[in-house]
Amino acid sequence: MGLFSFTQEIAMDLGTANSIIIHNDKIVVDEPSVVAIENKTDKLLAVGTNAHLMEGKEPPGIRTIRPLRDGVIADFNAAEQMIRGMVKMVSPKRRWFSPSLRMVVCIPSGSTEVEIRAVRDSSEHAGGRDVYMIYEPMAAALGIGLDVEAPDGNMIVDIGGGSTEIAVISLGGIVSNKSIRIAGNDLTADIQEHMGRVHNLRVGTTMAEQIKINVGSALPELEDAPEPYVVCGPNRMTSLPMEVPVTYEEISHCIDKTIIKMENAILAALEQTPPELYADIVRNGIYLAGGGALLRGLAKRFSDKIRIEFKIPEDPLHAVALGTGVALKNINRFSFLIR
Predict the structure, then answer these.
(1) Rounded CA gap, 316 and 34, in Å?
(2) In this predicted model, what pLDDT tens digit does every residue of 209-262 receive, in sequence order?
(3) What pLDDT, in 10s, does the model give residues 297-324?
(4) What's the number of CA atoms in the CB half-sphere (13 Å) around residue 197?
(5) What DSSP string runs through 267-315?
């Protein structure tokens, strides 16, 4: 039947760090949001993992671009090429014709009209005939398995690569929301700056990301402590090679200021919440989604500070993408989708 299906339906979580595509209820593409482009011809050379491997290593004739910054499109042409390249990955064997494409794409809840139009235009130029959009916290709530149309208050904190989305959801709508451009990439930048300042060690974004994954922690004391992570790189002054063991306690101190900003944003969103919904949130807890939810000790730190239980769902990293897939199946039912 696939040969004669004239409409292809996909759900896309267009993220600052990673982009995910869901097709037929399955994650079929999960790639870094990077493209490699030839300078002279502007021809697309690689997309996703292949482009990510070139990052920081490209010769003069090639440039790698991350089309999204802080959750929104910063380079329109590169975004269009990336979406087109990733859509091709869904059905690489299809050669005879390109089917009509129905898409549901995620956008940050704090997006302006211009940013929303940029996502719509990029998706349409990449082949989308029928493009719907959904706010990220709403998609995260659907992905976690919450009943978003119930008259019950649920709070979602979605910490992505470029933005942290905080929203209170009830009756199929976002009642109050706070979108801040502080997220996982800022934690990575903190680690980069710390390694240079304290250890005189020059580390790139990829290495700083590895440090965050291996020994990143929101708390200076953990029950299940990771082993120190050995970082290799050049000395900033002499350019001679160095090896520095990094502990989770050290990283927890260097990312502390960024996490305090996230805590303040959550408190600001709770301040705007109507009392009836606030009572629901205290009872139901607050759900953490996005890659940032995987940071060791983060849920406990937030719970201790805000005095409401923070819950991490089974797959926080893919919650937004899975929720976008749910929205795709219920396009005619969900009134909160943006056309």
Answers:
(1) 22
(2) 999 999 999 999 888 888 999 999 999 999 999 999 999 999 999 999 999 999
(3) 999 999 999 999 999 998 898 999 999 9
(4) 8
(5) HHHHHTS-HHHHHHHHHH-EEEESGGGGSBTHHHHHHHHHSS-EE--S-
Among all chains, which residue has been given the structure tokens 């402590």? 225
Distances (CA, A) of 82 to 14, 65, 161, 189, 199: 10, 10, 17, 24, 37
The pTM for the full model equals 0.87
C-alpha gyration radius of the chain: 21
Q: What is the DSSP string of 225-272?
A: PPPPEEEEEEBTTT--EEEEEE-HHHHHHHTHHHHHHHHHHHHHHHHT
Q: For helices 256-271 and 298-306, give the axis angle rounded to 10 degrees.
A: 50
